[in-house]
């Protein structure tokens, strides 16, 4: 059974940890708590990989009959957002993961806050992390879990908006958003893109 690589985008360091731009990394941390191969009640632990990333190898989700889901490498690049491609390309090669089993989880300005959208390929929409990955892997044809953060209010610069922490109202709903996005990743791995889209793109 082929391995999956699930990458959560963000910037390294505690000063960025709560930023909207780091929601992809937050989702991957949520997935680490769902490791089906670990000790009951525990969570997967991350290790530093030579490809300049934090990684955790887990079994994500369950198969029919209750068997653990597919082997999955969770990863958060240790580089800044605009250099995410190098670690991702290195991990694809190291773990021998085909491009069709790469899932990138990232923040999305052009989706309403709290919404989740799934797609394969397409443009990067000005997202520097996606642009770097596309350049490094030589293709846009990878899966994306797009976590909506909405547009900035008024005339606030989008670059400033994504590098600010979630506001109080947003933080109240953040656990639900991370849970939904983690569910979307699991659905992609378990049932494929189109069935997962039907589930998460429907009015909820």
TrEMBL record:
<feature type="site" description="Stabilizes the basic form of H active site to accept a proton">
    <location>
        <position position="107"/>
    </location>
</feature>
<feature type="active site" description="Proton acceptor">
    <location>
        <position position="21"/>
    </location>
</feature>
<dbReference type="GO" id="GO:0072344">
    <property type="term" value="P:rescue of stalled ribosome"/>
</dbReference>
<feature type="binding site">
    <location>
        <position position="16"/>
    </location>
    <ligand>
        <name>tRNA</name>
    </ligand>
</feature>
<feature type="binding site">
    <location>
        <position position="82"/>
    </location>
    <ligand>
        <name>tRNA</name>
    </ligand>
</feature>
<keyword id="KW-0820">tRNA-binding</keyword>
<keyword id="KW-0694">RNA-binding</keyword>
<dbReference type="GO" id="GO:0005737">
    <property type="term" value="C:cytoplasm"/>
</dbReference>
<dbReference type="InterPro" id="IPR001328">
    <property type="entry name" value="Pept_tRNA_hydro"/>
</dbReference>
<keyword id="KW-0963">Cytoplasm</keyword>
<keyword id="KW-0378">Hydrolase</keyword>
<feature type="binding site">
    <location>
        <position position="128"/>
    </location>
    <ligand>
        <name>tRNA</name>
    </ligand>
</feature>
<dbReference type="GO" id="GO:0004045">
    <property type="term" value="F:peptidyl-tRNA hydrolase activity"/>
</dbReference>
<dbReference type="GO" id="GO:0000049">
    <property type="term" value="F:tRNA binding"/>
</dbReference>
<comment type="similarity">
    <text>Belongs to the PTH family.</text>
</comment>
<comment type="subunit">
    <text>Monomer.</text>
</comment>
<feature type="binding site">
    <location>
        <position position="80"/>
    </location>
    <ligand>
        <name>tRNA</name>
    </ligand>
</feature>
<comment type="function">
    <text>Catalyzes the release of premature peptidyl moieties from peptidyl-tRNA molecules trapped in stalled 50S ribosomal subunits, and thus maintains levels of free tRNAs and 50S ribosomes.</text>
</comment>
<feature type="site" description="Discriminates between blocked and unblocked aminoacyl-tRNA">
    <location>
        <position position="11"/>
    </location>
</feature>
<comment type="function">
    <text>Hydrolyzes ribosome-free peptidyl-tRNAs (with 1 or more amino acids incorporated), which drop off the ribosome during protein synthesis, or as a result of ribosome stalling.</text>
</comment>
<dbReference type="Pfam" id="PF01195">
    <property type="entry name" value="Pept_tRNA_hydro"/>
</dbReference>
<dbReference type="GO" id="GO:0006515">
    <property type="term" value="P:protein quality control for misfolded or incompletely synthesized proteins"/>
</dbReference>
<dbReference type="InterPro" id="IPR018171">
    <property type="entry name" value="Pept_tRNA_hydro_CS"/>
</dbReference>
<protein>
    <recommendedName>
        <fullName>Peptidyl-tRNA hydrolase</fullName>
        <ecNumber>3.1.1.29</ecNumber>
    </recommendedName>
</protein>
<dbReference type="InterPro" id="IPR036416">
    <property type="entry name" value="Pept_tRNA_hydro_sf"/>
</dbReference>
